Amino acid sequence: FKGDDTCEYLLSSGRFLGEKVWQPHSCMMHKYKNSEAKNCLIDKHIVFIGDSRIRQLFYSFIKLINPQVKEEGNKHGNIPFEDKSASIKVDFLWYPEVNGSMRQRIKSWTEGSVAKPHIIVAGAATWSIKIHNGSNEALTQYKINITSIAPLLEKLAKSSDVYWVLQDPVYEDLLSDSRKMITNEKIDAYNEAAVRILNSSSRNSKAKVKVFSVSKLIAQETIMKSADGLHLPESSRDTNAMILMNVYCNKIMKPIDGSCCQPQPPLTLIQKLAFCFFTLSIIGYLIINLIHRNNFRKNKSCTDLESGEEKKPTISTPNVSTLEMLLHSFCKLGLIMTYFYLCDRANLFMKENKFYTHSSFFIPIVYILVLGVFYTENTKETKVLNREQTDEWKGWMQLVILIYHISGASTFLPVYMHIRVLVAAYLFQTGYGHFSYFWIKGDFGVYRVCQVLFRLNFLVVVLCIVMDRPYQFYYFVPLVTVWFMIIYATLAIWPQIVQKKTNGNCLWHFGLLLKLICLLTCIYFLSYSQGAFEKIFSFWPLSKCFELNGNVYEWWFRWKLDRYVVFHGMLFAFIYLALQKHQMISEGKGDPLFSNRVSNVLLFISIVSFLTYSIWASSCKNKTECNELHPSVSVVQILAFILIRNIPGYVRSVYSSFFAWFGKISLELFICQYHIWLAADTKGILVLIPGYPMFNVLVSTFIFVCVAHEISQITNDLAQIVVPKDNSTLLKRLLCVAGFFSGLLLFSAMQDQSRH
Predict the structure, then answer these.
(1) How does it sit in the membrane (predicted)?
(2) Active-site residues: which are they?
(3) Does 334 fall in a domain?
(4) Average confidence (pLDDT) over 400-406
(5) For labelling alongside 528, which of 16, 126, 156, 513 has CA 20 to 30 A away?
(6) How is 296-348 classified by DSSP, letter by letter?
(7) The pLDDT of residue 100
(8) Does residue 675 sit in the same domain as residue 730?
């Protein structure tokens, strides 16, 4: 840990991921679009001063503002560029040598009468080597000239951003005869002189000339692809320009996936209050624990001399034990949230960009599948989608999604489309599970609703407070929460139709089907009426929950993407439970689900359907078009998987305990990955151990899984306390929760006002 100035790392060190992706040491680089570049550089004047290599950098830089610019004009002359829409001026000034002419131009900017550029990028040396045939006298003169220029650049650095670009190495085999004297040995000597002289008079000052040395590292990897051995290939120039843009713009634009040069965000009022709360919880738990230890020593069992019987200490009252459990849970949670904050808000640990390769995705997939098959056990029951099987299903899906995220596989469209099916399958289980519960149990009480809502939302609410992120940022939890409420409303609204009622009269089945048709109609209407959808969720305080970046478009997009799959889950549950009730399926151990002929036909259709969907998803050319079809066709692969998994009796009667273990904490794994496994809000990868990628993944994964498991236990413990079964106590708790969220909304409004 060398401080939080990641700009120094960005300008001086890094490595290539693959052939074209540059990874700065310790931080993440944002890829700027031209609209973002314009917003950052509005009303700015940028000057590039130097030789032909600086001219190349100039062209790559202005192409970030306007990609249509062509490299034309006098190569050995000044080149102006202006974007009038954003009032941006970028000039290239032809000064191929560090001499009196360059000094005079730089000096003019230090005088009060001339407007200073906001950014100055300078550098030159190869012309001096070429003109003077690589003589030592030329190097001596270069040192004298740069010594005279250095104080002027340091003076400009007090009010402008000044960069000195070190000379890139050359590929000597490709150099023309007129450039053979430009050797890497000479270039190193010139660079060494520049580094030693620049900032020599301002070592302890904050205003320094920034030495742009990273270009040398990039050139070392790519100069052999140069056309003439001197000038960098276009991809390398573009990387240098993007680094320059990150150095200047990240602190202004604050992109999520651009951690380089970004200062640590200040603590908000809500974060400070959360910190105080967790601190008091830790202190309170330690005090109670100390008191209990003292009481235990005093009441320690001792032998009665007369009777020889052991006297037992008095048992603590339930109130004290409940308070202790509460404080113990918040104590652990406080320590865990501190780790979250240090990982993804403080500039303590390094972050790196993702880089996708087929091996980084498929090799871990094969590895976990082998592990999963190795841990095979018999199920307690052999019903379709029994508890062990659904936990297993959630577990392997979650592990695949985690590998998808850390490997950056979203850039590979076939993998993206299959992962979309896995997310849809989670929502399918939401529809299936909650419909089955309400249909069989007929329990529409407040206790059940509060338990589900608490378990789904507890961690996300805490993270919204601690990490200063909106609720919609953790999109999956709002999605399953809203769908749970929709399922509840559909079945709880009069007339309440449950299995017990339909046993007496089969006509109630048609009543339930009518409810489901009404639900499908509402879903269809909202999916094709973005305006109506946005109006519903733009009302305060719903807007506070579902807005992201000032609008609810992201929420509409996420909801629309899997809009039918919960309905499909409910319909499947209804059909399956009806078949089960009328004994039309066989769920005995080792028995196929249907007769042999029907089972074989369904199994064949399921395998063909499964493979057909995979072929279609793998042949997708456009993400937008495939996303349009996904809501209607994703159920094909989900149903095919369910039938393949459940029709054969043996397959239905075994499960993987390895996957099932992860399935029990799948929600916590999905949410925790945002900050303590990935980094920069899922855009990058957390680096706890720099320089050892595989070892880093092993260590961060172990901590991440342990934390997710611990949070799952904390949530279960707190759910018993916060959501009691007694209705009067539950009502009081609900009033407290309403008061808590009212206070949260008030503090959030105060924060928003102070930010504006």
Answers:
(1) Multi-pass membrane protein
(2) 52, 228, 231
(3) no
(4) 97
(5) 513
(6) HHHT---B-TTT-PBPPPPPPPHHHHHHHHHHHHHHHHHHHHHHHHHHHTSTT
(7) 94
(8) no
